[in-house]
Specification:
Bound molecules: pyridoxal-5'-phosphate
Structural class: alpha/beta
Radius of gyration: 24 Å
CATH architecture of the largest domain: 3-Layer(aba) Sandwich
Helix content: 25-40%
Distance between the termini: 30 Å
Length: 506
């Protein structure tokens, strides 16, 4: 057995003297890193399994990592009490209700959100929170849904609710090379469609593809022009402070496992109470109704957030949310942010400086090349000495052999990928055109159906997307140094490999 659970010998051989020298130079270039040294001690104490197992984890945008103390504290709590399904008067239920409400309060406190202004709706993840908004938003003919090319598919999917209700939707392009939005273009779009119909503007505070941090100032700019603002916080909040006493987006979806690793299966929608009253849920469920009659054929939804929590909450896991938030607060979001900023800066500088012997660059980074207006998510591709893109599956396979966890593909963010790879609307329309939209799934299915590989080739793609490296809470210099050493193994070679697994989907 090897990898995540067994053989602990690191397959990574490198010169530790050289690493120490590189770290000295890094610390000199990024003196602010020193202020984050508490995280090195924390890693040794609470995340020792990473180094014990020789794992180099660089997929924090995929999922965060938990500290051992989070598990201990949660399991101790479960071991020491008897908890029942909340929202009843019996003692075990009451004990649970109290902890559920404490978790809710801790979310508000963590984000400095006033309980008068915001409600916390617990969901199973960020996608579920997004669906709650999409399905209940008052889209109507004349209404608008404005969103960026650079959005996760769970935001893109809201366009189908808009479409079904006759509202129009508009995508704002992100522009190469930085893959940011042109401010003037955004302002002109925000001026449009003021006809009294509801208008929703959705964007990620941080791109899960390029790491771009789209300005929080857009929240006020859009609201001042009558838009509701859905700020996707999923990729932003793990390493940045989102202060809801300063910023007032109407809806913020997020997943807790991305912030502190454990538990999975719990997210939330932070919603402004004023905005919640404009939503109309398409159904009711256990837990969401104040009253409902079978014979009377009517129902009254609970007001506020409770009207959105369908059925039984993942209640035993909610105390772990409070524990996780306390863990982050004790470290300090500024410390986490600073650490990730310094390491990302060094990583970008170093990767971009790598050249084959013939002078050609080894990598192309999609998105900003400096730490300005970006977080610690870096998307890139590797190129061989002739300038051909190295298949991302080759990179994945070689990285896995070194116990390096990175991610490849399009990261559920096709729009950022289309912009990064310069795919034209005309090319994409040919495949995803109106008439074939319903038959498209069949196109890919069954005997003789088109494979995803074939589909990508038809689009003119050189690979299946990009390679994503993402830094987080306990990333240290050795992690990013090892990534660079891994990158160096691709210098001056043509790593064609056979037996690559077929790509299954985007
Ligand atoms: C920016 C962004 N939004 C939404 C999501 C969806 O999160 P989940 O899969 O936890 O629902 C993700 C997940 O990676 C994300 O990065």
């Amino acid at each position: 057995m090897s990898g995540a659970t067994g053989d602990t010998r690191s397959p990574f051989h490198f010169n530790s003297v050289e690493m120490r020298e590189a770290e000295r130079a890094f610390r000199h270039a990024y003196p602010a890193f020193e202020s984050t040294s508490s995280l090195d001690a924390l890693r040794a104490r609470e995340y020792a399994r990473l180094d014990d197992l020789g794992q180099i984890y660089l997929d924090y945008t995929g999922g965060g990592l938990y500290a051992e103390s989070q598990l201990r504290e949660h399991f101790d709590l479960l071991r020491r009490h008897v908890f029942g399904n909340p929202h009843s008067l019996n003692p075990t239920s009451r004990a649970m209700t109290e902890l559920v409400e404490r978790a809710r309060t801790s979310v508000l406190e963590f984000f400095q959100a006033s309980p008068d202004e915001y409600a916390v709706i617990f969901t199973s993840n960020a996608s579920h929170a997004l669906k709650l908004v999409g399905e209940a938003y008052s889209f109507q003919p004349g209404g608008q849904f404005l969103l960026l090319f650079d959005n996760h598919n769970s935001v893109n999917g809201i366009r189908e609710f808009a479409r079904a209700k006759g509202a129009s939707f508009t995508y704002l392009p992100v522009m190469a090379p930085d893959l940011c939005v042109e401010e003037a273009l955004l302002r002109s779009f925000l001026e449009q469609g003021a006809n009294g119909a509801h208008r929703l503007f959705a964007y990620p505070a941080q791109s899960n593809f390029t790491g771009v941090q789209h300005p929080l100032e857009w929240i006020e700019a859009a609201q001042a022009r009558g838009w509701h603002v859905l700020l996707d916080g999923a990729a932003f909040v793990p390493t940045n402070r989102l202060d809801l006493s300063r910023w007032h987006p109407d809806f913020v979806p997020l997943s807790f496992y991305k912030m502190f690793g454990y538990p999975t299966g719990v997210g939330c929608l932070l919603a402004r109470k004023a905005a919640l009253t404009t939503l109309h849920r398409p159904w009711f469920a256990g837990g969401t109704v104040w009253g409902i009659s079978v014979q009377g054929d009517g129902y009254v939804l609970l007001s506020g957030g409770e009207g959105f929590e369908d059925g039984t909450l993942n209640y035993l896991n909610l105390p772990a949310v409070e524990i996780g938030l306390k863990h982050l607060a004790a470290i300090g979001m500024e410390t986490i942010h600073q650490r990730v900023r310094c390491l990302t800066g060094w990583l970008l500088d170093t990767l971009l400086s790598l050249r084959h012997s013939n002078g050609r660059p080894l990598v192309e980074v999609y998105g900003p090349h400096t730490t300005d207006r970006r977080g610690g998510t870096v998307a890139l591709n590797f190129f061989d000495p002739h300038g051909s893109m190295i298949d991302e599956r080759v990179v994945d396979r070689r990285a896995s052999e070194m116990r390096l966890s990175l991610r490849t593909g399009c990261f559920c963010n096709p729009g950022a990928g289309e912009a990064a790879f310069h795919l034209s609307k005309e090319t994409l329309r040919k495949v995803f055109h109106e008439e074939s939209r319903d038959t498209l799934p069949q196109l890919f299915k069954g005997e003789g159906g088109m494979s995803w590989d074939q589909f990508l080739a038809d689009l003119g793609m050189q690979s299946g997307g990009a390679v994503r490296v993402s830094l987080g809470l306990v990333t240290n210099f050795a992690d990013v140094y090892r990534l660079v050493q891994f990158a160096r193994t691709l210098l001056d070679i043509f790593p064609g490999e056979s037996d690559l697994p077929p790509r299954l989907h985007c």
